[in-house]
Specification:
With 515 residues, the protein is an alpha/beta fold. The chain has 4 domains: 142 residues, Rossmann fold (3-Layer(aba) Sandwich); 79 residues, no CATH class; 182 residues, 3-Layer(aba) Sandwich (Rossmann fold); 75 residues, no CATH class. It has 19 helices and 22 strands. The strands form 5 sheets. The protein has a 6-stranded mixed sheet, sandwiched between helices. It has a 6-stranded mixed sheet with strand order 16-19-20-13-21-22, with helices on both faces. Strands 2-1-4-5 form a 4-stranded antiparallel sheet, covered by helices on one side. α5 crosses α6. The protein is globular and about 70 Å long. The termini are far apart. The relative contact order is 0.10. The N terminus and C terminus are likely disordered.
Length: 515
């Protein structure tokens, strides 16, 4: 055994994968060391997902050699990879919603008693131990997964992966659904695993996460491995240009000056819902973009759902173009009288019908525009769909293709296209760039600016404070279901957003927490 062979936990040589005429990976050489966090960067469609599916046994390569340590392997199933110590946490969770947390955590290898039956008590004990390891003692192992919020489900997924005793742990956008407090927990967990000698492959589109965690970076583009380098060797701009294959001038388009006398298209006064929203009041001007900031889980999502008529029992006053209205359903919210659209948080479960075509997904909420009597004007529908696909630069072979075949970024474009087809003038964005590559993010940032410049009004919730800074005219900081602070102009900066989110007054002593 040579020194060269023994120094890598994972070693790929000449690995290729083709789907019909499309080359997803092209003769990739890739290596990573034990006891390190190795970031894999690239746009959606760069080959990252195919790479980790091959490493974790989901798909098999057409060519090439894979070594785990010094052993050449050929994984035929994910279980085969798990047996060799390779475990993957995919962006799309693998949990069974109608099963308990404990059942999910122990699903692949449940403990059994002397009769060969599943030992429920031992399963609970194991689950409690693993949940404590990820600092989630508050999760009841007996709770059904479907009753947990998305961020808690993600922590269960991580606990489940650690229960498989991995040597190589692959994390695909593992923090994209997490609340801010859980992100910090995950950081500490991953750093601890690194100290224990594990190899971690980390995929994220959030550069500040990469900078916080990764020792080594590898950039992929168009199915090829472009370069691997140590932390600090390349600037953020160099990394992004390497990922997208072109120079970038500015991440965010310039914000024009906004008049303080913009006509109000939306006015909200003293909006309340259960104990989650308390006395929310704000006004939204024509062509204005208002950001919703604060730590995750402070009522921002509930506020958007309340505006869109999803929640029941909402109290308070809502005016659209000066007329008081009560929005009782999404159907009413998207009507011509109100003209509202909501881009949901989870495109897979809330925004798309995955087995259906791009055509059907784009036109589904606008069919009344093409309906005459009992028939649909297919010519007009085709025209509008093609215009929207072109406007959104959706990369698709045919609009008849299933939307499930598209990359994550293009799927999100379909969700946005679907709602823009309605002609909405008030657009609610619920963390719309989560899990999307840098290049597609820039395209969406430009789109949002164009919509605002054209007179559309936007309320934009984002867990990325850079987006709030770069895109929003005003930012409302949510804390415990209330608007704690409004930031305008030069006040919209990282320091103020973070401090306000923590209810800290930098001009004097810390405030007491909002009641």
């Amino acid at each position: 055994m040579t020194e060269q062979q023994s120094q890598f936990a994972l070693d790929l040589t000449g690995v290729s994968k083709r789907y019909g005429g499309v080359t997803a990976l092209n003769e990739v050489d890739f290596k990573c060391k034990p006891g390190s966090i190795h970031a894999i960067l690239g746009e959606n469609g760069a080959g990252k997902s195919t790479l980790i599916k091959i490493i974790s046994g989901v798909v098999q390569p057409d060519d090439g050699v894979i070594k785990i340590g010094d052993d050449a392997v050929h994984f035929t199933t994910p279980q085969h990879a798990t047996d060799k110590g390779v475990v993957c946490i995919f962006q799309e969770l693998s949990l069974m919603p109608d099963m308990s947390v404990a059942d999910n955590i122990c699903l692949t290898d449940p403990p059994r008693n002397w009769l060969g039956l599943i030992d429920s008590a031992e399963q609970i004990r194991i689950s409690e131990e693993l949940l404590a390891r990820v600092d989630c003692d508050d999760i009841n192992p007996r709770e059904l997964v479907k009753n947990l919020p998305l961020s808690r489900r993600q922590m269960v997924e991580i606990a489940k992966a650690l229960g498989r005793n991995p040597k190589i742990l692959i994390l695909d956008e593992a923090t994209s659904a997490l609340a801010a407090a859980d992100v910090e927990k995950v950081y500490e967990i991953l750093k601890g695993l690194r100290e224990d000698g594990l190899t971690l492959l980390y995929i994220s589109h959030r550069m500040h996460e990469i900078e916080e965690l990764a020792d080594t970076y590898s950039v992929f583009r168009n199915g090829s491995h472009i370069e691997t380098f140590e932390k600090g060797k390349r600037s953020d701009q160099e990394i992004v240009e390497m990922m997208i294959g072109r120079e970038i001038s500015s991440v965010f388009p310039p914000k024009p000056e906004k008049s303080e006398t913009l006509p109000h298209v939306l006015e909200v006064e003293n909006l309340n819902w259960t104990d989650r929203l308390t006395n929310i009041s704000l006004s939204l001007g024509k062509g204005e973009t208002i950001g919703l900031g604060g730590l995750d889980g402070q009522g921002q999502r509930e506020f958007l759902l309340a505006l869109f008529g999803v929640l029941r029992g909402v109290e308070g006053t809502i005016k659209v173009n000066g007329t008081e209205t009560r929005i009782s359903s999404p159907k009413q919210a998207k009507s011509d009288d109100i003209g509202m659209a909501l881009i949901p948080e989870d495109r897979k479960t809330e925004g798309l019908m995955l087995p259906m075509s791009v055509r059907d997904n784009v036109s589904i909420v606008s069919l009344d525009q093409f309906t005459k009597g009992l028939s649909i004007d297919k010519g007009l529908e085709d025209q509008k769909i093609n215009e929207m696909v072109e406007k959104m630069t959706i990369k698709v072979g045919s609009v008849e293709d299933s939307v499930a075949t598209l990359s994550g970024g293009n799927q999100q474009k379909v969700v946005i296209a679907k709602w823009l087809m309605t002609g909405a003038q008030i657009i609610l964005l619920n963390d719309p760039t989560r899990g999307i590559d840098v290049g597609t993010k820039q395209e969406l940032y430009q789109l949002f600016r164009e919509l605002a410049d054209a007179g559309n009004s936007i309320i934009f919730y984002s867990t990325d404070y850079d987006e709030l800074i770069g895109l929003c005219d005003r930012v409302m900081i949510f804390y415990a279901g209330k608007i704690l602070k409004e930031l305008v102009g030069d006040q919209i900066n990282e320091t103020n957003i973070v401090a306000s989110s923590l209810n800290i007054d930098l001009s004097g002593p810390e405030k007491e927490n909002a009641e």
